[in-house]
Write a structure and sequence with these properties.
Helix content: 40-55%
Radius of gyration: 20 Å
Order of helices and strands: HHH
Strand content: under 5%
Distance between the termini: 53 Å
Shape: elongated
Largest sheet: none
Number of helices: 3
């Protein structure tokens, strides 16, 4: 969008992404004053609970 001077909808079509996603990326870029790449939020460190435990590994072995 920035380099080619495209509108958000035209850039979305060229990239093959939904228009809503393109608008979200554009908003993220504008809020960060161009210092952060869109969609590159740091992870919060919250992980999902484990589904497999040692007893499962033993069973498979």
């Amino acid at each position: 969008i920035q380099e080619a001077g495209l509108t958000v909808p035209k850039a979305a079509v060229e990239c093959g992404i939904p228009r809503s996603t393109a608008y979200k990326f554009s908003d993220q870029w504008n809020v960060s004053d161009g210092t952060v790449l869109p969609g590159s939020k740091p992870r919060t460190g919250i992980s999902r609970p484990k589904k497999l435990f040692a007893e499962h590994t033993e069973f498979l072995i």
